[in-house]
Write a structure and sequence with these properties.
Two copies of one chain form a homodimer. Chain A contains 18 helices and 16 strands. With about 550 residues, chain A is an alpha/beta fold. In chain A, the strands form four sheets. In chain A, strands 1-2-3-4-5-6-7-8 form an eight-stranded parallel barrel, surrounded by eleven helices. A three-stranded antiparallel β-sheet of chain A has the order 11-12-13. In chain A, strands 14-15-16 form a three-stranded antiparallel β-sheet.
C-alpha cells in the first residue's frame, strides 16, 4: 500500500502562512480521514442545516478526531459563507482542519479573476477541495467547453490557490464512469491536477454505480499510471460505499471522504463510522487519535440529533440494535463466551450488548435477561420454564416484550412472587370521545378503583381518550401515591396486529414512561386501542411505583 | 465462475417424490436466490410476524421470483409449525420452493430418532436447511461435544433427510471465524456435509465481521479444497453484507442467502434487493424470471408494510430518495441526458427519478397524478397551484397522500368543484369504551347526521370504538345509500406522528376500503385516534359512493 509522505511535507510548508498543519491522527498526514457531512452530507433529502447546526456538527467531528472537515461552498450560498466567517471565531478545532469546497474556474476565464475562487480564498480555510470534471461527456454537455480547456481550468485553478497558500485537493467528479468512457482523458485530468500541485486527487464515484471489484482495479491502475496521491469518494447507490472505500484503501488510496451516518444525496455517501471502525479494528490502521473510537456511538447519535433524524437503530457498530441478540439458539452460548457471538467488543465503539426477549428466546435468554434486571434465576429451573411458557403464550397473543422491558420485569416478578403485585384494583373504567354539534371535541374518561381499602371514582379530560384515561387514573391515585406526580408519559406507539381484518383487529400499544431520571416501556394488547392502552398504563404506573420503592403490601 | 449443474440434476431426482423441482429463474438450478426473510430476517429487533404476515410475505417473494423461501423452524415454536401447515393449503408458489430450517441432530443421539429432524420432515417442505457448527470452539462450548461427534451429526442428519427425500442445504455457522481459528476443521465440516449428500454448503459469516477481501479469498480456497457447491450467507455488521455476497459470487459461490430490505438480527442480513440488482444489472447474470426486477421497488415497500416498518427512504435502488436529485446546478444537463446523473435507469427496478425542492416538480407531479385519475389539469395553472399549496399545508399537518389515493382524489375534486361533495352532514358523534365491573367490555358509538334532508340518529356496537363508529355510520346511511352494503374495511393502520409528547401526540390513520373489486385508501389526522379514524371513514364512504356512481346533488 502506498503511503505518500515526502511530497506532503513540502506541501505542508506551502500553507504554513495560514496556520500550522496539525496532526490529523496517529498516522500524521500519511492517511486522511476527510469528512464531508456539512457539504455533501447536507444534500440528503430531509436535511436542512442552520449555521449553528453546522458549527455544532463540526465540533463533534473534531472531537471524534477526523483530519479534515469540509464545511461547505463559500460564495455559493449565504449560509455557507456565514459558516466560514463564524468558524474563524467560534470554532476551536483541535484535530481537524477546515476545508472549503468549490469548483474549478469558469471556462474561458482566468483563475485570478474568478469570483468563486476568490470566495474560497476569502473563506480563510487552509485547505480547498476543488471539484473538476473528469468524464469527457460531462465536460461537453454540462460545462459546454472543450476537453483541453477543462484541463487548463484544473491547472490554472490549482496553481492559483497554491499561490494563495492553500493546500488543494481535487475531487474528480464522475471519475469511474469517465474512466470507462475515456480512460486516457480521465487519467489526463488526474495528471493535470497532480502536476499543478494538488496534494490529493480524489476519485469520485459520483453516481455510485461502481462495485468494489472494478473500483479496486481502477484505483490501482490510476496509482500505477500517474503516481498521484489518491483519495476515494464513494456514494452508496449499490449499497457498497463502505466496501468501495475500503477496496480503494486496499489498492493504495490514502485519503477517504465520508459523511457521518452516511448522510448524502440519493442513497447517501460512504458512512464515516464503519469505514473508520474497519480501518482501526479490522485492518490495523490507526487513523484516529487514541481513545476516540470509543466515542463513536455517542457522536453518531449526537449528530443525528442535530440534523433532526432518528439515529438508525440498525446502523453498523453504532445502532442500538448493532449488538442486540434475540435468538434462543445463541443465548445459551453467549452465557459461556460473549465473544463467540460478536464480531468486536461493543465497548471499543462505545456500544453495548443487549439481550432481547422474544418467543424465539429460550431459557438461556430469560436467565440472562433476569440477571440484567437483578434476578438470579439460574437455581430455579421450574420458574424459568414458567416464564418462557408465559412469554411464548403472550407473544402469540400479540404482546412484544423486546421493546417493553418493564412489562417483562412485571411478568417475571409475578412468577417469582406467585401473583401480581397490585397498588390498585380496577372496578371499571369508561372513555368517551365526542364530536359535538357545535364542532367541539370532548374526550372524557372515568375510572372506578380501589386502593388501600378505599373506593375512588375519578374523571379526567384530555386531548384524546387515552390522555383522558391517563389523567383520570392519576387523579384517582395521586393522593394515595404522591410518587406518581413525577411520572410522565413520553412516547406512545400503536400497531394494528393482523391486517386485512378492518377495524376489528387486535391492537398493540407501547408506552414509554419517565420518572425524570430513567425511562421504561410497557405493552398492552386488546381488541381496541383504548383497552390496550389501559393495560400499558396499568403496567407503567405499577412499575413506576415499584421503582419508587413503594411497598404494594403496605 | 463455477456453475454447479451435473450434481444438481442428480439431487433433483432425489426429491422428486416430494414435488417436482421448479425452475428458480432463467439460470434454472445453476444459481440460487435463497430468501430467509421469514426465518433469519424475522430476528430483527422490532419485527414480530404473525402466520398471516408470513404467508403474505411468502407470496410477495414468490412474485418477485426468488428460488427458495426459508419459512422458519418448524417444531421450534408453534408459529413456525403452523406456518408450514397452512402453507400446504394456502400457499400456491409459482417460482419458489419452500424451505424448512433446523439444526443437525443432538450429540450422542441418532438422526432417525431426533424429534427436531422429524418435525422438519413433517413440515412437508421439499428442501431443508440444516445449521451446523463449523467453528471448533463453538462445537466445544455451545454444543458441548467433540469435534468428531459434530462431524458425525452432520453426516447422520444429512443422510437421514436425503433418505426421507429432502433436498438438503447446510448452513455452516460462524464459518469464517472458524476458518481463521481452525482451517482444517472448518474444511472437514464442509467435506462431511458435501460427501453425505448436501447439495449446497453455505458459508455463513454469522457474526458479520469479515470484510470482502478476506471473504473472497476464503470462498475461493474452500471451493478449490473441497469441490462442494458453495453458498454465502452474510450479515451486515461491517456494512459490507452486499459487497461480501457479491465477492463470494465472484469467487464462485452459486447460492446467495438474503433477506428482503436486509432485515435480520443486529444490523441485518445481506439485502436481497441490491444483491439481485447488482447481479442482474451490473454483473450480467439473469437470476430472476424476466420482468420481475421492475417489480422490486413495489415489492420492497409492500413487505415493509407487512412487517410494519416504514420503507427505508434511502435504501439502494428502491428507496424513494434513491433517484432523487436536488435541482439547480445540473438541471440542464439532466434534461439533456439523465443517464449522466444516474447509475441505472430507475425504471429497471420500478423506481422513478425525482427532482427535489423545485415547485415545478410539485406542479408536474400533481398534473401527472391528476391525469392518472382522469382530470386534465394542464390548462388551469391556478387550480394546480391551489392543489400544490393545499397538499403542502396538509402534509405539514401530518397527512400523507402517497398512501391515500382516494383522499388525494377527494381533495382534487374539492378544488375542481369549488367545494366538498357531501352525501351526508354530521351533526355529532360519540364513542364510548367501557370496562365494566363484571369484567366485560362495551364499545358503543352514536352518530347524528343529516342525509337527503333527513336527520338520522344511529348507534352501533363493535370490537373497539372505531369499529362501533363504523357500524353506527353504516346503519345510519345504508337505508338511504344501499351501495354502502358492498363496502368493507380491509385494513387499518395507525401511526403516532410526533414522539416525545406522550398520549397528546397527533395521530395519523390510514384506512383501506374495498367494494369487492377495487381497494382505495384514505387518511385522517387528529389529536386522537378516534377523531382521525372518523375523518378516514368519512373519506372512505364518500369516495365509495362517488365510485358507485351516486350523485351527491340528487
Amino acid at each position: 500500500m502506498t503511503e505518500a509522505s515526502s511530497s506532503e511535507a513540502a506541501s505542508n510548508k506551502a500553507v504554513g502562512n495560514q496556520e500550522s498543519i496539525r496532526e490529523t491522527g496517529p498516522s500524521g498526514d500519511a492517511f486522511h480521514v476527510f469528512d464531508t457531512t456539512l457539504r455533501d452530507g447536507a444534500q440528503r433529502e430531509g436535511i436542512n442545516l442552520t449555521v449553528a447546526d453546522k458549527l455544532t456538527i463540526a465540533r463533534y467531528l473534531d472531537e471524534f478526531g477526523v483530519g479534515f472537515i469540509e464545511g461547505g461552498w463559500p460564495g455559493a450560498n449565504p449560509r455557507d459563507t456565514e459558516f466560514f466567517a463564524r468558524a474563524q471565531t467560534e470554532l476551536d478545532l483541535r484535530h481537524a482542519q477546515l476545508v472549503a469546497f468549490g469548483a474549478t474556474r469558469r471556462a474561458g476565464g482566468s483563475a485570478a479573476e474568478d469570483p468563486q475562487l476568490a470566495a474560497l480564498v476569502a473563506s480563510g480555510a487552509p485547505v480547498v477541495t476543488l471539484v473538476a470534471k473528469s468524464h469527457d461527456r460531462h465536460v461537453e454537455l454540462a460545462l459546454r467547453t472543450t476537453l483541453e480547456e477543462n484541463l487548463e481550468m484544473v491547472r490554472d485553478s490549482v496553481r492559483y490557490l497554491r499561490a494563495e497558500g492553500r493546500r488543494v485537493f481535487i475531487d474528480c467528479e464522475h471519475f469511474f464512469d469517465g474512466y470507462r468512457a475515456n480512460r486516457d482523458y480521465a487519467l489526463a485530468v488526474v495528471r493535470a491536477a497532480h502536476e499543478a500541485g494538488a496534494d490529493v486527487v480524489v476519485l469520485c464515484d459520483t453516481n455510485g454505480g461502481t462495485l468494489p471489484g472494478e473500483l479496486r482495479a481502477i484505483v490501482a491502475e490510476v496509482l500505477a499510471e500517474t503516481g498521484a496521491r489518491i483519495g476515494i469518494h464513494a456514494q452508496d447507490d449499490t449499497g457498497c460505499a463502505v466496501a468501495n472505500t475500503l477496496a480503494a484503501v486496499d489498492a493504495g488510496a490514502t485519503h477517504v471522504q465520508c459523511t457521518a451516518n452516511g448522510y448524502g444525496e440519493r442513497v447517501g455517501n460512504a458512512n464515516l463510522f464503519p469505514v473508520v471502525a474497519a480501518l482501526e479494528l479490522k485492518l490495523d490502521r490507526r487513523v484516529l487519535p487514541a481513545g476516540r473510537l470509543a466515542e463513536m456511538t455517542r457522536i453518531s447519535h449526537a449528530i443525528a440529533e442535530v440534523v433532526n433524524l432518528s439515529p438508525s437503530t440498525h446502523q453498523p457498530y453504532v445502532g442500538v440494535s448493532a449488538f442486540a441478540h434475540k435468538a434462543g439458539l445463541h443465548a445459551s452460548a453467549i452465557k459461556v463466551d460473549p465473544d463467540l457471538y460478536q464480531h468486536i467488543d461493543p465497548e471499543l465503539v462505545g456500544n453495548t450488548m443487549r439481550m432481547l426477549v422474544s418467543d424465539m428466546a429460550g431459557r438461556a435468554s430469560v436467565e440472562l435477561k433476569g440477571k440484567e434486571l437483578g434476578y438470579d434465576l439460574s437455581a430455579d429451573r421450574d420458574l424459568v420454564g414458567r416464564v418462557v411458557a408465559r412469554i411464548k403464550k403472550q407473544e402469540k397473543a400479540g404482546y412484544s416484550y423486546e421493546a417493553a422491558d418493564a412489562s417483562f420485569e412485571l411478568l417475571l416478578r409475578d412468577e417469582v412472587k406467585g401473583s401480581r403485585e397490585r397498588f390498585f384494583t380496577v372496578e371499571s373504567w369508561r372513555a368517551i370521545v365526542e364530536q359535538t354539534p357545535a364542532g367541539g371535541a370532548v374526550n372524557e374518561a372515568t375510572v372506578k378503583l380501589w386502593a388501600k381499602g378505599e373506593r375512588i371514582v375519578s374523571t379526567g379530560e384530555g386531548n384524546g381518550p387515552v390522555d383522558a384515561l391517563d389523567r383520570a387514573l392519576r387523579t384517582a391515585l395521586e393522593r394515595i401515591y404522591p410518587q406518581l406526580a413525577k411520572l410522565e408519559l413520553v412516547d406512545y406507539k400503536v400497531r394494528i396486529l393482523e391486517g386485512r381484518h378492518g377495524t376489528g383487529s387486535e391492537t398493540r400499544v407501547l408506552v414509554d414512561t419517565s420518572d425524570g431520571t430513567r425511562e421504561w416501556s410497557t405493552v398492552g394488547v386488546a381488541s381496541n386501542v383504548i383497552a390496550a392502552s389501559w393495560q400499558a398504563l396499568d403496567d407503567a404506573y405499577t412499575y413506576g411505583l415499584l421503582r419508587a420503592g413503594v411497598d404494594p403490601e403496605a
